[in-house]
Design goal:
The complex is a heterodimer of chains A (182) and B (351).
Chain A: H1 5-19, H2 33-53, E1 69-73, E2 76-85, E3 88-99, H3 104-118, E4 127-131, E5 134-142, H4 148-173
Antiparallel strand pairs in A: 1-2, 2-3, 3-5, 4-5
Helix pairs in contact in A: 2-4
Chain B: H1 7-18, E1 23-27, H2 28-34, H3 42-54, E2 57-59, H4 66-69, E3 74-79, E4 97-99, E5 102-105, H5 110-114, H6 121-130, E6 132-136, E7 141-148, E8 152-155, E9 170-174, E10 180-189, E11 194-198, E12 220-225, E13 233-245, E14 251-255, E15 267-270, E16 275-282, E17 295-299, H7 304-313, H8 315-320, E18 322-323, E19 330-331
Antiparallel strand pairs in B: 1-3, 2-3, 4-5, 6-7, 6-9, 7-8, 8-11, 9-10, 10-11, 12-13, 12-15, 13-14, 14-17, 15-16, 16-17, 18-19
Classes of the chains: A alpha+beta (182), B alpha+beta (351).
Amino acid sequence: MRPPAAHHRLGVSLLQQRERGVPQLAEHHARTPEQRETLRAQGAQAIMDGMKRLGASDPTALQDENGFLHFPVGSIQCTLGIVTLEERDLFLVYVPIMDLPSDRDLILPLYRLLLELNNRFELSIAKFGLHGDTIFLSAMRPLDSLDPTEVEDMVRWVSRVADDIDDRLLAEFGGTSKRRDG
Amino acid sequence: MEARLKPAVARILDELRSRPKGIKKMSARRLLRAFGYERRSQENVREIRAELARARIEVNLAVDDPKTLDELVTLRLRKATRALPVDASDAPPAGGKTVGDRPLSPLPTPAQIAQGRHRDITDVIAAVKQCTVQIFTEIGEGSGVIVDPNGLILTNRHVVDTEEGLSERYVHVHFADGTEDDATVVRSHRPLDYALLVVPRQGLCAVPLGDPLKLKDAQTLYAIGNPGGLAFSVTRGIVSAARRVCTTNVEYIQTDAAINAGSSGGPVVTEQGDLVGISAWAYRGDGRLQAQGINFAIPVDYMREEIRALRAIGFQEACRRYYCRHCGWLEESEGRYCSNCGAARTEGSER
């Protein structure tokens, strides 16, 4: 699985800053490869423990070949795992909500609504994004001192918000504004 | 009888009824467009006359008179009090219209069906098969159906999708007669899951578009496609629900005519050979339910406006325009971003 486009773009802009010699926030967190390996192992363990707290007796069964975990919550499919951005490892939860519509009179209002929703504190750490033509809801956090309780909270929160909102978004923007008697 | 009238004829009839004198004037160009023709020809004028005569509408449109064939001339349409004979000399020759020696649409005309000729379903399906194509992309294959003799093919958007979910711009098409050609994707719609392709050919067999709004539950439907590479397989079923809405506000035709991977994009036709939908997807059940025979086709009337617009642009011109591989939008103007969805223009979208 590739990292979502928004994160990728952020990575590109950070790289450009580095080329210009701007001091990097990430440099404070510079780690040796061994330290990073340990951190990733601890993070992976915290994710597995968090999944057990969520009620999955054998979380490894939910894993794909890239180490990402996929499981359904209500009408949505939740994915979580560790992604690497700018040599930092992050815990990522994300949920695809819907495909982008094709009708001009649906796309623009949807873009606006998603930007407005992103600014709402009800979403908390979750945010909407666009990857290719899929709209998804996601939350990210550095792996440093990741706790199973935190994993559980993040997964519960993101999947609950996504499950609440996906039906409403689909009903309004998921189809077409075309009429059949054209 | 009126149930089988074309939508264009039904609209004209409605307008005539609302006029006090029962007379309507319209330009020959508008009349041709209403029937979905871009240009006039003796063949399509014959068909228009026959269609209007069936609805008892008189029109001063003569097949051989060059004056009334001029696209700008104003025609007078009037509701006749008596039944108008569909003149045998005006009716299309048996086996359909011709361009030179090539058959254009081998399907029986509504007049022929009404007269009891060409009732045999095997003839109808053999004709529709000629209009069905196989579509090959880098990641898979699907089916498609020719909807305009000048080379317009209708299929599913997911048939022409790449692995990343973008739309292909060029795909490969195999025709029923064994020939093949490259096709250009000129328009697609992701939620409705249709795509329109242009092949550089003229005088192909095309399936006439039917009226899916008039479908009734339990009516027989036939689906043709290439499931698993088994080219031009025919399946039969009935309309399980004529206007099924699933999750989004899109209406599908639910049918039990088998639709499998590879038959996506193939035609779903009535017993008269009218194209009512294209095979889209099948519900296979979830953890609790193992489903069978729950298949969905997208009604063609969603695409009617799009097909008309493409005819107006001209198919070859459409191939030259910018095509957004994200949202399937076609536009003439220059720019860095798609004016429909805002996506940055990608390589391979322009010819």
